[in-house]
Amino acid sequence: MKFFLKNKLHKPDVVFFDLDNTIYDYDSAHTFAMNQVSFYFFKKHNLSKKKFFFFFKKDKNLIINYLGKKAYFKNRLIYLKKIF
Fold first, then answer.
1. What residues contact 52, with CB distance under 8 A and at least 6 apart?
2. What distance in Å separates the CA atoms of residue 56 and residue 38, rounded to the nearest whole number?
3. Which 3 state secondary structure label does DSSP give 35?
4. CB 73 within 8 A of CB 67
């Protein structure tokens, strides 16, 4: 499995965890973010929202099968890198 990126990713300066949804509502933030990403794919590649989520789910399953269910298997950035 190969991943191709035009720009290298940089390590973040700060990371915080909100394990109990006290800082922000995860579900609404996740829904908003995924809709924004699907809109990007529609504008840049004419990929419908339905097809975007199909590929997202497909690639997510491929990565989980390849890497196994470890702590990082929920990292959406890994799935999105596969789609890009």
1. 37, 38, 41, 42, 83
2. 10
3. helix
4. yes
In the prediction, which pLDDT does 36 show?
A: 93
CA distances from 40 to 21, 37, 45, 49, 68 (A): 27, 5, 8, 10, 29
- Looking at residue 48, the DSSP 8-state letter turns out to be -
Residues 6+ apart with CB under 8 A from 38: 49, 52, 53
CA distances from 32 to 17, 28, 37, 39, 41 (A): 19, 6, 9, 11, 15
User: Does 73 score more than 90 pLDDT?
Assistant: no
Closest CA to 53 of 65, 64, 42, 68: 42
**pLDDT class for 31, splitting at 50, 70, 90?**
very high
